[in-house]
Design goal:
alpha+beta; binds zinc ion; 5 helices; four-stranded antiparallel sheet; 33% helix; two-stranded antiparallel sheet; single chain
C-alpha cells in the first residue's frame, strides 16, 4: 500500500491518471479498495478511474496540508520540510522533528476540519505516565492534547521534547 500511495501521489495529469488506472493489476485494485475502505469509502472495483480519483482526493488533501495523514503514511513536513517516514504502528498527528501539527481534525483522525492552521506545541505534560503534547492552533486558537510517539520507525525527537518541556522549543 505504501508503494501504491507513493505512485498515486506522483500522478499530476489526467493522462497519467488514465494510464495508471488502465495498468492496475487485480492486486493493486484490491489495494485501492482496502485503502478506500480504511477511509470509510465503498467503491466499485469495475470503475477503475473513479477508484483512482477517490484515492487521489485524500492523497492530494494530505499533500496540500503538508502533514500528517489519516493513514500511517510517509509525508514531508510542511513546517520543517523534513521527510517523515511512516510510523509503523499508528498514524502520526505531528511531525517527529519539529513537533508541529496541523488543525485538520474535528474528532481525532476524521480530517474534517476546514481550518488547516498550523498547530504549535506549547507544553509537554504527563498523563497516565505518557508524554502528551498540548498543540495550539495559530489560526483559530483550538487546542488539543496529542500523545508523543516514543516508539516506531522515527520516534519524536527526544531533544525537541526536552526543549518543549523546558519551554525552549523554537
Ligand atoms: Zn516538522
Ligand atoms: Zn484551527
Amino acid at each position: 500500500v505504501t508503494d501504491l500511495n507513493a505512485r498515486l501521489s506522483a500522478i499530476r495529469t489526467r493522462g497519467e491518471l488514465k494510464r495508471f488506472a488502465a495498468a492496475l493489476s487485480p492486486d493493486e485494485i484490491a489495494g485501492l479498495i482496502d485503502l478506500l475502505a480504511a477511509r470509510g469509502i465503498t467503491a466499485d472495483p469495475e470503475d477503475r478511474k473513479r477508484l483512482v480519483r477517490l484515492a487521489l482526493d485524500r492523497a492530494d488533501a494530505a499533500q496540500a496540508v503538508g502533514t500528517m495523514t489519516a493513514l500511517d503514511e510517509s509525508f514531508r513536513c510542511g513546517h520543517c520540510d523534513r521527510d517523515v517516514p511512516a510510523h509503523g504502528r499508528t498514524a502520526r498527528n505531528h511531525c517527529p522533528f519539529c513537533l508541529r501539527s496541523r488543525h485538520v481534525d474535528v474528532i481525532p483522525g476524521d480530517r474534517a476540519s476546514p481550518c488547516h492552521g498550523w498547530m504549535d506545541p506549547v507544553r509537554l505534560t504527563l498523563r497516565h505516565g505518557e508524554a502528551v503534547i498540548l498543540h495550539h492552533c495559530r489560526s483559530c486558537g483550538f487546542e488539543r492534547n496529542n500523545r508523543a510517539l516514543t516508539d516506531g520507525s522515527t520516534p519524536d525527537d527526544p531533544a525537541a521534547l526536552r526543549a518543549l518541556s523546558a519551554g525552549q522549543l523554537r
